Amino acid sequence: MPVARPRILPDTPQDPRYDPSCTRCARLAEFRELVRAENPGYWCKPVPPFGDPSARFVIVGLAPGMHGANATGRPFTGDYAGILLFETLHAFGWANQPRGAAVGDGLALRNCRISNAVKCLPPQNKPLPVEIANCASYLTADLATLESGGVMLALGRIAHDAALRALGFKVRDFAFGHGARHELRDASRELVLFDSYHCSRYNTNTGRLTREMFHAVFASIAAHFASSGQAAA
Ligand code: SF4
């Protein structure tokens, strides 16, 4: 049973980055209870970010997968998308091991954190716009920890849009595209947002995203860190 698990955020309703008992989205709160009834050992709560709390590199995914993060309580852990993601993070030095299929497996991220635009499992992996908006304050609070010079990677268009909105930028000013790089400046800091197609089973099975394409995005991020004089990991 996925009970004991590493967590970087306080498990309290007061933390603006994560509320384990959040019910802002009635549909999702009801759905996670339905899934819990059918899968008593599953996490079935909002899934908090995972990784280095002071990371300068934050990956933004979409939402927990039914039998992945929703089961284990750790982003991308136990689902197909995590296979390519953790293998890639390890290849570029952001993870201490190439696999992250189960909580308690020793996986640790260096200078990297993984968050989701939507913290609760959505039916058919499709959150409604209002649910993305409901969850935005948690992402805003999480991304607020990024200092100037920080880097984000959005996995998919929904994550791209959610990250921009969470930071107060207009989506229409930054078009999503695989491999795209966006410079985001506001009064207090300069951040860079990279885009990739989501490393989902559908995208990799259809060839929309290959391992080489995914690695190329991470190579660009590593090169950005190097060119800006920052240690990547
Ligand atoms: S998706 Fe986000 S806002 Fe909606 S219930 Fe879950 S934690 Fe709350």
Highlighted features:
alpha/beta, Uracil-DNA Glycosylase, subunit E, 7 helices, 6 strands, disordered N terminus
Compact overview of the structure:
The protein has seven helices and six strands; from the N terminus they run αββααβαβαββαα. The protein has 233 residues and is α/β, with parallel strands linked by helices.
Please render the helix and strand layout as text:
Layout: H1 26-38, E1 50-51, E2 57-61, H2 69-72, H3 80-91, E3 112-116, H4 129-143, E4 151-155, H5 157-167, E5 181-185, E6 190-196, H6 201-205, H7 211-227
Parallel strand pairs: 2-3, 2-4, 4-6
Antiparallel strand pairs: 1-3, 5-6
Residues 22-25, 28-29, 46, 118-120, 131, 134-135 line the site of iron/sulfur cluster.
Approximately what portion of the residues adopt beta-strand conformation?
A: 5-15%
Distance linking N and C termini: 32 Å
Rounded mean pLDDT score: 93
Within the largest sheet, what's the order of strands?
1-3-2-4-6-5
